[in-house]
Design goal:
There is one protein chain. The chain has 332 residues and is α+β, with helices and mostly antiparallel strands. The chain has three domains: 68 residues, Ubiquitin-like (UB roll), CATH 3.10.20; 83 residues, no CATH class; 172 residues, no CATH class. The strands form two sheets. Strands 1-2-3-4 form a four-stranded antiparallel beta sheet, covered by helices on one side. Strands 5-6 form a two-stranded antiparallel sheet. The longest helix is centred in the N-terminal third of the chain and has 19 residues. The radius of gyration is 28 Å and the shape is elongated. The termini are far apart. The model has no long low-confidence stretch (mean pLDDT 89). The structure holds zinc ion (ZN).
């Protein structure tokens, strides 16, 4: 690498060559070793000042030092910013630091132990970051808050912490027409019939009784990142391992097809005919927003009754129920 730089000893602009040297330094009693970069004047052989390599050397030394002190490193802070697609200023706000704190840490200032610990706690765990974000809801403007929450939910979707995410990802992967609306309803019906065919609830998350039918808010939020764009299934699936048993996959395949053949709007209307959603919305007008939880007992009672009324014995029998709901929606 060559660069034309001002050489102080020649008092001229000179062509300079980049040299890398292994450096060992002791700072605050800690000895570090790193590669230092400098430009050497090709005429007089003196070291020439260059802002870029000067910054690089400070960063590298700091990063090395932090490896030893256990404080978060500049490169790790940058990783957080990239991963959560958040500005330095907003990250400072969300974590409750002073507004310019993150950019100071990035420039070279060593973080305090407390700030370092907070940054480390969110680095690989979107669920922890979500806690900070929800607390900062009133500090951020609405649009920024929604965007950041969507990004966090998307990262959660990529992590392996929750079964409902695995099921959602599986459903989207196997049905490219899935939308945020249709997915919510398919999850609802899948969980409803799972007690009968799997002997347990497929997942433990509870739906809320929104205007548009039952909704699992964490899944809704995760996909809302794609609200204005098509759901990028490839991006969601990247690095995602789906942890479902063969029995569960068979159940999902065999039952979801009876619902995924309908549009999101039809499924919404079909879900409007089900007791658990209706019960949760008792006393609310048609257009009244609500976060009311759909009761698990209501789910059990209703789907037990459906299984009896429609004489459902095999997974194929579920189609009798699905078709009947669909016909009722057409009649309405
Ligand atoms: Zn020179």
């Amino acid at each position: 690498m060559k660069k034309n730089l001002y050489c102080l000893s020649c008092d001229e602009i000179r062509e300079c060559n980049l040299k890398e040297n292994k450096i060992t330094k002791t700072i605050d009693g800690i000895t570090i070793t790193y590669l230092e970069k400098k430009y050497i004047c090709s005429v007089c052989g003196e070291v020439v000042y260059d802002a870029e390599t000067f910054d690089y050397n400070i960063h590298t030394a700091n990063d090395e030092l932090r490896k030893h002190t256990g404080l978060i490193r500049t490169s790790e802070i940058q990783e957080i910013i990239d991963k959560y697609s958040i500005s330095q200023k907003n990250l400072s706000k969300v974590l409750g630091f002073g507004e310019i704190q993150i950019s100071r840490y990035l420039k070279s200032g060593n973080p305090s132990r407390a700030h370092s610990d907070i940054l480390k706690s969110i680095k690989d765990n979107p669920f922890v970051f979500e806690g900070y974000l929800l607390n900062a809801k009133d500090i951020l403007d609405e649009k920024t808050f929604r965007k950041q929450l969507g990004k966090v939910r998307q990262l959660e979707l990529l992590s392996n912490h929750s079964k409902i995410y695995d099921i959602s990802v599986y459903l989207m992967e196997h049905n490219p027409d899935t939308t945020n609306m249709s997915l919510q309803k398919i999850l609802y019906f899948l969980n409803g019939f799972s007690k009968k065919f799997l002997k347990y609830n497929l997942f433990n998350d509870l739906a809320q009784a929104w205007i548009y039918g039952p909704v699992y808010p964490e899944i809704y939020d995760a996909l809302s990142y794609y609200f204005y764009n098509k759901i990028d299934v490839d991006e969601i699936l990247k690095d995602k391992e789906i942890d479902l048993s063969e029995e569960e996959i068979n159940y999902i395949n065999n039952v979801s097809k009876f619902f995924s053949c309908y549009s999101g709007k039809k499924l919404r209307d079909m879900s409007h005919l089900t007791d658990p959603w209706l019960n949760a919305r008792k006393g609310l007008s048609e257009k009244e927003p609500s976060n009311r939880i759909i009761d698990n007992k209501d789910m059990d009672n209703y789907f037990s009754k459906v299984i009896k009324d429609y004489n459902i014995e095999t997974v194929d029998d579920v189609n009798k129920y699905a078709q009947d709901l669909f016909n009722k929606v057409l009649d309405n």
